[in-house]
Design a protein that fits this description.
- The complex is a heterodimer of chains A (396) and B (134).
- Chain A has 396 residues and is α/β, with parallel strands linked by helices.
- In chain B, 45% of the residues are buried.
- In chain B, helix 1 packs across helix 2 and helix 4 crosses helix 5.
- The chains are: A alpha/beta (396), B alpha+beta (134).
- Chains A and B meet through helix 8 and helix 12 of A and helix 1, strand 2, strand 3 and helix 2 of B.
Chain lengths: 396, 134
C-alpha cells in the first residue's frame, strides 16, 4: 500500500466532487459571473444554465422542471418541506407522521413544530430498521396533514417502503415527503411511480458540491415560501442563485443517473464482501439493519465490548476514514438514535462502525481493511473490562 | 451520524497514550480495585492497585471507552505510581487533563472518570484494610 494513501470509506458523509463536475462549475465563478436576474446576456446565459440544471434534475426524478426548487442542501429542503407544508395546511389539521430513525434535519424540525402546537407521531421501525406500512396506516388520523419518511437511512442504509407509503398517503389526501439525500445516485427514484409529493436531495452525496440541494414540490402542493424576498425560484425561495453550485448539481445528477446500474453493481460487491468477511473474521460482531433492503454501499456493524470512537481513531492511524454511531463522536452522551431504535442495547450501539463505499474504492481497499480491522478490535477488547467480565463469566 | 472529532483536537500526548497505553492489564492479587462508569454511557474504567507501606507500588487498568477515556486512564496510572495513598487522592481530573496537554472540552468528563477510578480503588483498599484489622 502507498504510504499515506487515505482509504475513504465514508461516502454517506460526503463524496469528492467529480472532475467533470468541477470543470462545469468553474466558469461560473469567473467569466460567467452575471446575476441570473439581469436582462443583459451575461445574466440571461446564467438563467439558462440554471434552467438546464433544473431540467437535468427533473429528468433524473421523473418530475417536471417547474417542480424543482434549488436550496442550500438537504437540511434546508427538509426544513422547508415540513414547516412549509405544516404552516400552509394547518387549517386542515396539525398532525404529522414520521419515523424514529429520520435524520436530525427532519426530527428536530418536527420537535420544533411540536413546540408550535403541532402534534407529531414518531412511528417506530422494526428490528431490521424498516418501518411497517401498516404502522404508518394505524398512525393516520383525520387531522393528519403530512407524512415524512426517509427513502434510505443514513446510518444503517435501510430502504423504506416509500412507494407503498406514498400510495397510502395519496389515497387519504395526505401530503408525503421523503428525505432522499442518501438514496439519490444509489437507488432508482421516480417521484411519479413512487407517489412522492415532496423530496429532499443534496448534491454532495453524489459527487457534486456541498451547499446545494433540491426540494421537489409536486405541482399543486400547498406550501409556504421558505425565504421571502425576490422572485427567484418562483418566489418561493428568494436569494440570488448559487449558479456554479446549481450547475455542478445538474452535472452530478446527470452522471449519477446515467451510471446508476453500474455503480450499484460495483458497490453491492464491495458491500457484501466486506460484510461477510468482517462478520466471519471478528467474533461477537453483528450487522445492523436489513441485510438485503439496504443501500448498495452501506455496511454498519457493531462490535461487542468496544467503543466506536476508539475504533475510528485506530483506523485513522491506519489511514482509513470511517464513522460510528458512538456517543463519543457526537458530543452527546447517548449513542445513535437509529441504533437504539432498532433495539440495540446502549453498550453495543456505542461499538458500531459504519463503512460506506463509493466510486474510488476497490477490492484492495477491502483487503487492507480486513488486514487492519481484526487486530484493532482484538487490541481494544484486550483492554476492555467488559470483555474481561464476559470471558470470565460468560456474560457481562 | 456525526463524523469523528478532528484528530487535531486530541493532543499528541493523548494519541500516544491511546495508541500505547501504559500499565494496561490487571493485578490478580490487587490490594484495591475500583470500577467506575457504566456501559450505557459508553465509558467504564477499572483500576487495580498494589499497595505496600501506604505506597502504590503497582497499578494496572482496563478501560472500555473513547480515545480520551483510554488516555486519561493510562495517564492517571502513571501519575499515581510510586505515590503514597494520600498523594494519589490529591490528584484531580484537571491534573490528569493537564498532564495530557489538555482535552477537548466535550471530553473533560472522561478525566473525571479517571479521578473517580483512583478514589474508588483506594476506598476499596481502605475497606479491605479495615476489615483485616477487625
Amino acid at each position: 500500500m502507498e504510504l499515506n494513501k487515505k482509504i475513504y470509506l465514508d461516502h454517506a458523509a460526503t463524496t469528492p466532487v467529480k472532475p467533470e463536475v468541477l470543470e462545469a462549475m468553474l466558469p461560473y465563478f469567473t467569466e460567467k459571473y452575471g446575476n441570473p436576474s439581469s436582462i443583459y446576456s451575461l445574466g440571461r446565459e446564467n438563467r439558462k444554465a440554471i434552467e438546464d440544471a433544473r431540467e437535468k434534475v427533473a429528468k433524473a426524478l421523473n418530475a417536471l422542471p417547474k417542480e424543482i426548487f434549488f436550496t442550500s442542501g438537504g437540511s434546508e429542503s427538509d426544513n422547508w418541506a415540513i414547516k412549509g407544508v405544516a404552516y400552509a395546511n394547518q387549517n386542515n389539521g396539525k398532525h404529522i407522521i414520521t419515523t424514529n430513525i429520520e435524520h436530525h434535519a427532519v426530527l428536530n424540525t418536527c420537535k420544533y413544530l411540536e413546540r408550535q402546537g403541532f402534534e407529531v407521531t414518531y412511528v417506530p421501525v422494526k428490528e431490521n430498521g424498516i418501518v411497517d406500512v401498516e404502522d404508518i396506516k394505524k398512525a393516520i388520523r383525520p387531522d393528519t396533514i403530512l407524512i415524512s419518511v426517509m427513502f434510505a437511512n443514513n446510518e444503517i442504509g435501510t430502504i423504506q417502503p416509500v412507494k407503498e407509503i406514498g400510495e397510502l398517503a395519496r389515497a387519504k389526501g395526505i401530503y408525503f415527503h421523503t428525505d432522499a439525500v442518501q438514496a439519490i445516485g444509489n437507488v432508482h427514484v421516480d417521484v411519479k411511480d413512487q407517489n412522492i409529493d415532496l423530496l429532499s436531495l443534496s448534491a454532495h452525496k453524489f459527487y457534486g458540491p456541498k451547499g446545494v440541494g433540491v426540494l421537489y414540490i409536486k405541482d399543486g402542493v400547498r406550501i409556504n415560501s421558505f425565504i421571502h424576498g425576490g422572485e427567484q425560484e418562483r418566489g418561493k425561495r428568494a436569494s440570488t442563485e448559487n449558479v456554479a453550485s446549481i450547475v455542478g448539481l445538474g452535472k452530478a445528477i446527470e452522471i449519477a443517473d446515467a451510471n446508476i446500474d453500474n455503480y450499484n453493481e460495483k458497490l453491492l460487491k464491495l458491500r457484501d464482501r466486506a460484510t461477510k468477511e468482517i462478520l466471519g473474521k471478528i467474533p461477537y460482531s453483528r450487522l445492523n439493519g436489513d441485510p438485503e433492503k439496504r443501500l448498495p454501499g452501506n455496511v454498519n456493524i457493531s462490535f461487542e465490548f468496544v467503543e466506536g470512537e476508539s475504533i475510528l481513531l485506530s483506523l485513522d492511524m491506519k489511514n482509513i476514514c470511517a464513522s460510528s454511531g458512538s456517543a463519543c463522536t457526537s458530543g452527546s452522551l447517548d449513542p445513535s438514535h437509529v441504533l437504539l431504535a432498532i433495539g440495540l442495547p446502549h453498550e453495543i450501539a456505542h461499538g458500531s462502525l459504519r463503512l460506506t463505499f463509493g466510486e474510488e474504492n476497490t477490492d484492495s481497499d477491502i483487503d487492507y481493511l480486513l488486514e487492519v480491522l481484526p487486530p484493532i478490535i482484538e487490541k481494544l477488547r484486550a483492554m476492555s473490562p467488559l470483555y474481561d467480565t464476559f470471558t470470565k463469566n460468560g456474560r457481562i | 451520524m456525526t463524523p469523528l472529532l478532528k484528530m487535531e483536537e486530541y493532543s499528541q500526548k493523548v494519541m500516544d497514550h491511546f495508541m500505547n497505553p501504559r500499565n494496561i492489564g490487571e493485578i490478580p492479587d490487587a490490594d484495591g480495585v475500583g470500577q467506575v462508569g457504566n456501559p450505557v454511557c459508553g465509558d467504564i474504567m477499572k483500576m487495580y492497585l498494589k499497595i505496600e507501606n501506604n505506597v502504590i507500588t503497582d497499578v494496572k487498568f482496563k478501560t472500555f471507552g473513547c480515545g480520551a477515556a483510554v488516555a486519561t486512564s493510562s495517564m492517571a496510572t502513571e501519575l499515581i505510581k510510586g505515590k503514597t495513598v494520600e498523594e494519589a487522592l490529591e490528584i484531580t481530573n484537571k491534573a490528569v487533563a493537564e498532564a495530557l496537554d489538555g482535552l477537548p472540552p466535550i471530553k473533560m468528563h472522561c478525566s473525571n472518570l479517571a479521578e473517580q477510578a483512583i478514589k474508588a480503588a483506594i476506598e476499596d483498599y481502605r475497606k479491605k484494610n479495615e476489615s483485616a484489622k477487625q
